[in-house]
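Milestone 3.1: sequence recovery, worked example.
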């Protein structure tokens, strides 16, 4: 799965968020915070 913020491929799911019923995973706490502040920008269509 890809980190929606930095587009890096992420293998572990330790850092994840749910948005509109979809799961997103992140390479770092930093990326997760960016996503959580503005999920609609990164969640795609
Ligand atoms: Zn990232």
């Amino acid at each position: 799965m890809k980190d929606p913020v930095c587009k890096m491929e992420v293998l572990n799911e330790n850092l994840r968020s749910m948005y509109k019923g979809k799961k997103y995973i992140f390479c770092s706490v930093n990326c997760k915070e960016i996503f959580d502040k503005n999920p609609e920008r990164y969640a795609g269509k």
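The chain has one domain: 1-45. The first strand starts at residue 16 and ends at 19.
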